[in-house]
Specification:
alpha/beta; eight-stranded mixed beta sheet; 9 helices; 16 strands; about 20% strand; globular; binds zinc ion
């Protein structure tokens, strides 16, 4: 064998080795199951395929955790994991399922709204595969995932994604983005069928308010805010005023869901059901393009010198300093915002009220950390897996 061929053979060997190492890591991520401890008020765990049968056997036949007080009232639904690279959604959703006590009405939680998107990682961005929260009993671990569903589960993407039923043309990969496929359709691709199933649940179960949990890069203008469908505007406005005045160090704003922008939960759920729909955003520095090393500590601690520098140049829509945006601040904000919106909704519509206790608010999550509210699976009576 001449020298050129030996170099070629060595290059193939290195490539194969890299592929094997990567495959082992990606398979471990795809096969990892997250444990959810069923808290004191969980009365039932349903499957989304009950509402859209074609999801049966797919990664998006997700668990729907139902907490029923057994007393009359309304129904509030919370979605975590719409975008898995925004970890506060699943963490806050687990805290709700494991701790909430329902005294009136029902609280329904989905911890992994687009589960397929949590089963793979973003190409070329070196995202960590997992994230962990420290607790008294050890670490609780989740898959990180990407913004859209895995191409292994939904393929091929169209040249242009034509949103149903508006016919608005969107970027091709957004056909796998759960927050661009509402209200969905039964004969669409996986993510469209997922939102279709969620819409069926919302209509059949008479959900009064849908809350969709997100995080956003500081370079993005829709930040630290509540985006509200017109039906939810009063609740969002009151919640933003009260939380800003009484609880949060950085104010939470309120904005209107644009009528001409389609596929988003805050627009379509309100338009295609009786429910009012709202979406929360909080700052996550790891999502910023300008960030430094993309690792688990940036994800969880939210500290980054490059993002701080961008702030000094006036390029950000959220304050940023050396303290960053740690996970306890982000989880605490979302939990307080959920509880505040539920309280205001219950005050405005007493016959559909939902009363929740046992869920920590902002100050308590910052003081004790989110791990203090995650239960030990070894001590749990009932668990489920996502
Ligand atoms: Zn998001």
């Amino acid at each position: 064998m001449d020298r050129t061929n030996r170099i070629k053979l060595a290059a193939v060997g290195v490539a194969v080795l890299a592929a094997v190492v990567a495959s082992v890591e990606f398979l471990a991520m795809r096969n990892y199951r997250e444990t959810v401890i069923l808290g004191p008020s969980v009365s039932e765990v349903r499957k989304l395929s009950q509402y859209e049968p074609s999801l049966s056997g797919t990664p998006n036949d997700v668990n729907i955790y139902i907490m029923d007080s057994g007393k009359p009232g309304g129904t509030v639904m919370v979605l975590g994991g719409t975008h898995p690279e925004e970890p506060v959604g699943p963490i806050a959703a687990h805290i709700l399922v494991e701790n909430a006590r329902l005294e009136a009405g029902r609280l329904v939680v989905v911890t992994r709204a687009n589960r397929s998107a949590s089963l793979y990682s973003r190409n070329g961005e070196a995202y960590p595969n997992f994230f962990r929260v420290k607790t008294d009993w050890g670490e609780k671990k989740w898959r990180l995932g990407d913004r859209g569903g895995s191409p292994l589960d939904s393929w091929p993407d169209p040249e242009v994604y034509v949103h149903w039923p508006s016919h608005q043309m969107l970027a091709y990969m957004d056909i796998r983005n759960l927050n661009r496929t509402w209200p969905g359709r039964a004969d669409g691709l996986l993510t469209e069928r997922t939102t279709f199933g969620l819409m069926n649940f919302i209509r059949q179960e008479k959900v009064d308010m849908l809350i969709d949990l997100h995080e956003a890069e500081l370079e993005y203008p829709v930040e630290n805010t509540i985006v509200a469908h017109e039906k939810a505007q009063e609740i969002a406005a009151m919640a933003s005023m009260m939380l800003t005045a009484q609880e949060f160090a950085v104010p939470i704003g309120m904005e209107f869901s644009p009528k001409a922008l389609h596929g988003l939960s805050h627009r379509e759920v309100g338009d295609y059901s009786e429910a009012m729909s709202i979406l929360f955003e909080v700052a996550e520095p790891m999502l910023d393009r300008i960030r430094g090393v993309t690792d688990e500590s940036l994800l969880m601690e939210g500290k980054d010198d490059f993002v701080v520098e961008a702030g000094k140049h006036g390029l950000l829509y959220a304050p940023m300093d050396e303290k960053g945006w740690p996970i306890e601040v982000r989880v605490g904000r979302h939990l307080s915002t959920i509880l505040q919106c539920i309280d205001i909704f219950s005050m405005m519509t007493p016959d559909r009220s939902v009363t929740v206790s046992g869920v920590p608010r902002y100050a308590e999550v910052i003081e004790k950390g989110p791990g203090a509210f995650l239960k030990d699976p070894a001590q749990a009576e009932k668990i489920a897996q996502d």
